[in-house]
Amino acid sequence: MDREQHSGGTRGTELGRFLRACRARLAPEEVGLVAGGGRRRTPGLRREELATLAGISIDYYARLERGTETRPSPSVIDSLGRALKLEDDERDHLRALAALAARSVPQSPSAPNRTVRPGVKLLLESLRPFPAHVFSRTGDVLAYNPGGLRLVAGLDDWPAEQRNIARYVFLHPGARVLFDDWDNQVRSCVNGLRALAGMEPDAPDLTQLVGELLLKSPEFARLWERYDVKGHTYGRKTFHHPEVGDLTLGYQTLQLQGSPANCMVVYYAEPGTPEHDALALLDLAADESEHAPRLPPNRQPIEKP
C-alpha cells in the first residue's frame, strides 16, 4: 500500500490523498470554470481553483493536501465537500478522515472479527432458497447457505481461506462471465476497501489483500488510484450463471449488530417468477452437491452390472 512521509504522518496524508483524488476527478467545467489559463499538467481542478471555490486560502489548502495541516474545522471540511461536489458517502468519508487526522494519538488497527454467531448461521439457513452469505470487512466469505456459495459460480474451486469477493471478481476467470455489470462489481469492491484503508491504512488483513491485488490485477491498481468510496448496499444485479442461466435478482446488504465490521448480503426474487424458480433449483443443486459422496482422487464410481 502506498505511503507518504510528511510531518502530518499517515493520518494527515490520507486526508490529503483523498482530497487530491477528488480534485483530479472534477473537471473545471463541472464547477462553472472555463478550462483555460495555459496547459494543465494534471487532470481536474488546480489547487488554487479548489481553494477559491471552498473559500479558503491557497496556502492553507496546500498544507491540507501535504498533510502538514491536520486540524481543519468542520466548516472547512463541509466547504471542501460542497466545492468538490461529493456525494453522501464521500462527504462522510471526508469528515471521518478529518477527524482521524485531528487525533493526537493514532489508533492501533482493530483486530478483524471473523466470528459468525450461531444465530446468524441459523438465519442464513432460514433464508433458503434465497442465496445469502456473510462477508468480513475485507470481503472474506465467512459463512453462507448452499445457494449463497453456488450463486458465486466457481468460488468453491478455492479453499475456504482464499474465498474473498474482491479476490474473486478480479482474479477468478469465471467472474467476468458471471456478472453482467462486472465493471460496477469491481468498482464496488475497490470502493469498500478504499474506504477501510482511509480509516485503518496499516490493518494487516487489509494490506495483505490490497498488496496481492495490486500485484496481480492492473484493473485493481487503476481503480485503487481513483480513491472512490461510493458504496452500494442494495439494488439489482444480473448474473449469467452456468447452471441456471440468466437471472436478475434484488439484493440487500445488512450490517450485523455485535459484529459491525461484518455484513450479510441476501439476494431475492419474487415468488412465482422464473428467477425464484432458478434460485430454488440452485439451492437444491447446491444441497445435493454438498451431501454427495466424495471420491478419493483418481477414483471412479464402480458401475453395477
Descriptive report:
It is a single chain. This protein has 305 residues and is α+β, with helices and mostly antiparallel strands. It has 13 helices and five strands. The protein has helices at residues 9-25, 47-54, 58-66, 74-83, 88-102, 118-126, 146-151, 165-171, 175-178, 182-199, 204-216, 218-226, 274-291; strands spanning 132-135, 141-144, 234-241, 245-256, 259-268. Strands 2-1-5-4-3 form a five-stranded antiparallel β-sheet.
Distance between the termini: 61 Å
**Shape, principal axes of CA atoms:** elongated
Which structural category do the helix and sheet elements fall into? alpha+beta
**Whole-angstrom Rg:** 23 Å
User: Total strand count, please?
Assistant: 5
Q: Give the topology string: H per helix, E per strand.
A: HHHHHHEEHHHHHHEEEH
Concise synopsis of the structure shown:
With 305 residues, the protein is α+β, with helices and mostly antiparallel strands.
Write a concise keyword list for the protein shown above.
single chain, 305 residues, alpha+beta, 13 helices, 12% strand, disordered N terminus, disordered C terminus
Helix/strand layout:
Layout: H1 9-25, H2 47-54, H3 58-66, H4 74-83, H5 88-102, H6 118-126, E1 132-135, E2 141-144, H7 146-151, H8 165-171, H9 175-178, H10 182-199, H11 204-216, H12 218-226, E3 234-241, E4 245-256, E5 259-268, H13 274-291
Antiparallel strand pairs: 1-2, 1-5, 3-4, 4-5
Helix pairs in contact: 1-5, 2-3, 2-4, 4-5, 8-10, 11-12
